[in-house]
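Bug #2210: token dump truncated for DNA-3-methyladenine glycosylase I?
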Amino acid sequence: MKNHTKIRCTWANTNDELMQKYHDEVWGKPVHNNQQLFELLSLELMQSGLSWKTILHKQQNFEKAFYNFDYHQVAKMEQQIPDLLQNTGIIRNKRKINAIIQNAKMMEQLEKQGTNFSELLWQFVNHEPIINSVKNHTDIPNTTDLATKISKHLKSIGFSFTGPVVIYSLMQACGMVNDHENDCFAK
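Reproduced locally. Full output below:
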């Protein structure tokens, strides 16, 4: 009898169904929707210094706390910061919460200027995913020169908590970079 088990990246070989689903359906798949990109950016900055598993298991709480990452709503959340800091369902880090709100304001500002956030990001990869050859996930860098370049640009226009590591994680999450292992079914 043939084994029909999917071959996944090593990091997704887990019994954690949320991690498997994220690996199979999200990570490395191209995203061009501004609200989805804002959500991924927000989750990636929340993950900074923590495990992705922690963030993934709190994602629904984040969605509830941040209006499903509708950046127009999030941009107006400054007065809700004290409540967010009491919300045990999310990461209660004031710098990170402030950054999400600041980034929502920047998303709105870009929109008012006629700049599409997706277009802004994807132009850095000429609108085509970079497909890396990855034998083992431990070979994947935590950042690249391109992520540093994007980070500097985003910071220069007012985005917050968008360092090179956060940006490289975003690039992986939104499919600008495909870092699935070579033998992974999602490659």
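Output looks complete on our side. The radius of gyration is 17 Å. Marking as cannot-reproduce; reopen if the truncation happens again.
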